[in-house]
Amino acid sequence: MDDWETRPIPRVTGGRHAKDDALPTGHGHGHGHHHGPARPVSQPVRRLLALLLAPFALAAVVGVVLLFPTGDTTSAAAGQQAVLGTITTAAAGPCGVGETEGDQCLIVTVEMTDGAAAGSDIRTTVPLEPSTPRFAVGDEVVLGYSGGDPLSGGSYQIVDFQRGMPLAVLAGLFAVAVLVLGRWQGLKALVALGLSFAVLLLFVLPAILGGENPLLVAIAAAGVIMFGVLYLTHGFSARTSTAVLGTMVSLGLIGVLSALFSAAARLTGLDDQTATLVGSLGHGIDTRGLLLAGIVIGALGVLDDVTVTQTSAVWELRAANPALGWRRLYAAGVRIGRDHVSSAVNTLVMAYAGAALPVLLYSSLSDVGLGTILQQQSIAQEIVRTLVGSIGLVAAVPVTTAVAALVAVREPVLDDALE
């Protein structure tokens, strides 16, 4: 350990309580009073942060304005209308009307609770295949109505179960847990979460469906989400502004790297779900851009965690040892960030691996080598997604720490901040 980390630190005002004069740099988190509301920053720090943040804020706002969809984006993708019902009878039988042999289908009667045939019963068939769900009497289901006679079973296809109630209960439990533990801060976090979903549902999805470049849409949305969510959750302070800066720089790096390596690896972004989407839209969509947009949006949450933690660590170090210069403050902050980023990278890799688990299982059944499996489109895009996101996550630590140290050393530390 360097001698500057253990030697007594001179007080900036020669103040009271001599026993408080020695404050080691590594113990900033041990003083509970340092975790209160952030102190007002000086005018030079305010100007510096405004100068650094203005380009990102302007780019995000202009991007949303230019890319915001103005036309109807639902008509092109209009397919089957979703209606609700409850299965009242179910029995195995032949699939066709004229067939008399075999039990290849499940013949069900559904009491319609939604749509043009609400209150009526319709009779339809469900193929008994390994890839289709197993429906039974009493199941509440979602049917796709393709038009035609609303009382004819041929106009409907059972597509899924209704899951509204258990999902609503789970969401309620989540909200209660956040509020009980976080209280006012938890309420702000829930409002910020609602803002994120609003940006995704009202801007990102309609803009992509309207034919806009998915990567540009994702970057603009990420800017709006980061400014809104971080300031709403953590308040207007120098710490939050530094976290926003670090997050935006890291997201920009992720966007550039994902574009370069997806092009170098000739990734098309076309998988089964994307191919179905393209077919239902009736017009072209940038599938590679859709892949890149997913990479950018998927990295938002983890970057938020890393950048906020790094800025808090730098401010705690500054409060514990005001004598630290920019270089030493940066070095101490990066040492803290190394442990954090190693665990965060593992979290990111495991999250993507878990999402790609069915693809990995399917690929492992193929009688080919590991190298061939890893180069398949579905696997390769997950590798690019994971590694690019991890590089951006690693880069967030030195970038955020450098900006935080640059800002923190220009903020005056008052005598009572050390007591």
Automatic annotation (TrEMBL):
Q: Does the keyword Transmembrane apply?
A: yes
Query: What superkingdom does the record give?
Result: Bacteria
Keywords attached to this Swiss-Prot or TrEMBL record, sorted alphabetically, are: Membrane, Transmembrane, Transmembrane helix
Q: Where is this region: Disordered?
A: 1-40
Biased amino acid composition, Basic residues: 28-37
Which InterPro entries does the entry mention? YibE_F
> Which segments cross the bilayer?
48-68, 164-182, 189-209, 215-232, 244-265, 349-374, 386-409
- Please state what the protein is called: Uncharacterized membrane protein
